[in-house]
Amino acid sequence: MNPHLKMQIVTVFLMSLSMSLLLSGFFTALHVGLSADWLKAWLGSFAVGWPIAFALAMLIAGPIRRVAARISGL
Predict the structure, then answer these.
(1) Which of 25, 31, 35, 36 is deepest in the core (most CB within 10 A)?
(2) Per-residue confidence at 45, pLDDT binned at 50, 70, 90?
(3) Handedness of CA 57, 62, 65, 66 (dihedral sign)
(4) What is the distance, to the nearest Å, from the Cα of residue 24 to the centroid of all Cα atoms in its chain?
(5) Residue 36 DSSP code
(6) What's residue 36's pLDDT?
(7) pLDDT digits (tens, 9 = 90+) for 51-74
(8) DSSP string, the chain
Protein backbone atom coordinates (compact mmCIF):
# COMPACT_ATOMS: atom_id res chain seq x y z
CA MET A 1 0.00 0.00 0.00
CA ASN A 2 1.16 3.50 -0.82
CA PRO A 3 2.59 5.04 2.42
CA HIS A 4 0.78 8.35 1.77
CA LEU A 5 -2.57 6.58 1.36
CA LYS A 6 -1.90 4.45 4.44
CA MET A 7 -1.13 7.60 6.48
CA GLN A 8 -4.33 9.25 5.24
CA ILE A 9 -6.48 6.24 6.15
CA VAL A 10 -4.91 5.91 9.62
CA THR A 11 -5.30 9.65 10.26
CA VAL A 12 -8.96 9.65 9.20
CA PHE A 13 -9.58 6.48 11.24
CA LEU A 14 -8.12 7.96 14.43
CA MET A 15 -9.67 11.40 13.95
CA SER A 16 -13.16 10.06 13.23
CA LEU A 17 -12.87 7.58 16.10
CA SER A 18 -11.87 10.20 18.66
CA MET A 19 -14.34 12.83 17.47
CA SER A 20 -17.20 10.32 17.39
CA LEU A 21 -16.40 9.03 20.88
CA LEU A 22 -16.22 12.52 22.36
CA LEU A 23 -19.16 14.07 20.54
CA SER A 24 -21.52 11.13 20.89
CA GLY A 25 -20.67 10.96 24.59
CA PHE A 26 -21.20 14.68 25.08
CA PHE A 27 -24.48 14.92 23.17
CA THR A 28 -25.83 11.72 24.69
CA ALA A 29 -25.12 13.16 28.14
CA LEU A 30 -26.98 16.33 27.18
CA HIS A 31 -29.92 14.29 25.95
CA VAL A 32 -30.28 11.62 28.66
CA GLY A 33 -28.13 13.07 31.44
CA LEU A 34 -25.34 11.28 33.26
CA SER A 35 -27.51 8.43 34.42
CA ALA A 36 -27.24 4.65 34.41
CA ASP A 37 -28.74 4.67 30.90
CA TRP A 38 -26.06 7.02 29.57
CA LEU A 39 -23.38 4.42 28.84
CA LYS A 40 -25.72 2.15 26.88
CA ALA A 41 -27.16 5.09 24.93
CA TRP A 42 -23.66 6.48 24.28
CA LEU A 43 -22.34 3.17 22.97
CA GLY A 44 -25.38 2.84 20.71
CA SER A 45 -24.91 6.36 19.34
CA PHE A 46 -21.20 5.77 18.82
CA ALA A 47 -21.80 2.45 17.03
CA VAL A 48 -24.03 4.22 14.51
CA GLY A 49 -22.11 7.49 14.30
CA TRP A 50 -18.52 6.34 13.92
CA PRO A 51 -18.88 4.40 10.64
CA ILE A 52 -20.75 7.36 9.17
CA ALA A 53 -18.09 9.79 10.42
CA PHE A 54 -15.31 7.62 8.98
CA ALA A 55 -16.95 7.34 5.56
CA LEU A 56 -17.68 11.06 5.40
CA ALA A 57 -14.17 11.97 6.54
CA MET A 58 -12.68 9.74 3.83
CA LEU A 59 -14.85 11.49 1.24
CA ILE A 60 -14.09 15.05 2.30
CA ALA A 61 -10.46 14.74 3.47
CA GLY A 62 -8.97 15.57 0.06
CA PRO A 63 -11.12 18.62 -0.70
CA ILE A 64 -10.68 19.95 2.84
CA ARG A 65 -6.91 19.51 2.60
CA ARG A 66 -6.89 21.49 -0.67
CA VAL A 67 -8.98 24.30 0.81
CA ALA A 68 -6.74 24.43 3.89
CA ALA A 69 -3.65 24.63 1.66
CA ARG A 70 -5.14 27.54 -0.27
CA ILE A 71 -6.17 29.39 2.89
CA SER A 72 -2.77 28.90 4.49
CA GLY A 73 -0.92 29.88 1.31
CA LEU A 74 0.79 26.54 0.68
Answers:
(1) 25
(2) very high
(3) negative
(4) 10
(5) T
(6) 85
(7) 999 999 999 998 998 999 999 988
(8) --HHHHHHHHHHHHHHHHHHHHHHHHHHHHHH-SSTTHHHHHHHHHHHHHHHHHHHHHHHHHHHHHHHHHHHT-
